[in-house]
Write a structure and sequence with these properties.
The protein is built from nine helices and ten strands. By secondary structure, it is of the alpha/beta class. The strands form two sheets. The protein has a six-stranded mixed sheet with strand order 6-7-8-3-9-10, with helices on both faces. α4 crosses α5 and α6 runs parallel beside α7. The longest helix is centred in the C-terminal third of the chain and has 18 residues. The radius of gyration is 18 Å and the shape is globular.
C-alpha cells in the first residue's frame, strides 16, 4: 500500500545568527498518521514545525506541504495553505478578552469568511462537544483551568477543520492525569477528523499514547526514527535514555 505523503522535509537547515538550529533534517509525514518528534529543549523541534506552517523560512533544503514548496508560495497561496493547517501553541494562545464562543467564532469569520450565524454556532458547539467543553461556551479564558485551556486551544484549532494539526508541547505544564487526558484526546481527534498530526514533545507518556511513528532529534538533526517500541529497544544508549 502506497502512503500519501502530505509533508516532505529534505535537508532542512535554519540558523539564527551564528546559532545553527536545524542541521539538515529530513523526514516525511503520511496522511492520517501521528508523527511524534521527540527531543530535549533547544534541539530545533519547534523551529521545524514553524517552518512547516510557514511561520519561519528555512535557509536551505526543501519543505513541501501537500506537494507545494512552502517557501515559494505567494501570500495568497500561503494563506490558503494555512487554512488547511491547525497550529496548537504551547500556551493555547487564546484571546483573553473574548468568551470561549467568541474565540471559536473569530477564525470562522476572519479566516473562513463565514457569515451565517447558525453555521458558526453549530461549528462552535461541535468542536466544544468533541473536546468535552460544551458547558464552557459562555466562559472567559481566565475562568478555565490549565487543562481546559489546552482543550479550548484544541477546539479553536479544530473549528476550521484542518487537514494537518501541529502540536507544540501539548502537555507542558499539566499534571499527570490531565496530560494523559490531552494525549488520549489527540488520538480521538485523529480518528474523528481523520487528521494528520505532528506532535512536538519531550513527554514520554504522551509520545507512547499518541505516536504512530517517532523521530528523535538532537542538536538540530534527526538521529533515529521508528515506532515507540523500536526506539525504546534501540541499541544506542543515548536513544534509549529518552525512555528511562
Amino acid at each position: 500500500m502506497v502512503m500519501e505523503k502530505v509533508i516532505e522535509v529534505i535537508n532542512l537547515t535554519k540558523s539564527f545568527g551564528n546559532n545553527a538550529v536545524l542541521n539538515g533534517i529530513s523526514f516525511t509525514v503520511n496522511k492520517g498518521e501521528n508523527l511524534v518528534i521527540l527531543g530535549k529543549s533547544g534541539t530545533g523541534k519547534s523551529v521545524a514545525i514553524k517552518c512547516i506552517a510557514g511561520l519561519l523560512t528555512q535557509d536551505e533544503g526543501s519543505l513541501k506541504v501537500f506537494g507545494e514548496e512552502v517557501k515559494d508560495l505567494e501570500a495568497d497561496a500561503l494563506k490558503s495553505l494555512r487554512c488547511r493547517l491547525g497550529f496548537l501553541f504551547q500556551g493555547a494562545a487564546l484571546y483573553d478578552s473574548m468568551t470561549v464562543r467568541e474565540n471559536l467564532a473569530f477564525p470562522l469569520k476572519r479566516v473562513l469568511k463565514i457569515k451565517d450565524k447558525a453555521e458558526i454556532e453549530s461549528r462552535c458547539i461541535e468542536v466544544l462537544r468533541a473536546v468535552g467543553l460544551e458547558d464552557a461556551i459562555g466562559k472567559m479564558p481566565a475562568d478555565l483551568s490549565g487543562g481546559m485551556r489546552k482543550r479550548m486551544g484544541l477546539a479553536r484549532t479544530l473549528v476550521v477543520k484542518p487537514e494537518i494539526i501541529l502540536y507544540d508541547e501539548p502537555t507542558t505544564g499539566l499534571d499527570t492525569i490531565t496530560s494523559k487526558e490531552i494525549s488520549h484526546l489527540i488520538l480521538e481527534m485523529q480518528e474523528k477528523y481523520d487528521a494528520t498530526s505532528v506532535i512536538i514533545t519531550h513527554d514520554i507518556p504522551c509520545a507512547k499514547i499518541t505516536a504512530d511513528r517517532m523521530l528523535i532529534m538532537d542538536a538540530g538533526k534527526c538521529i533515529a526514527e521508528g515506532t515507540y517500541e523500536e526506539l525504546e529497544n534501540n541499541d544506542n544508549d543515548f536513544i534509549r535514555s529518552f525512555f528511562k
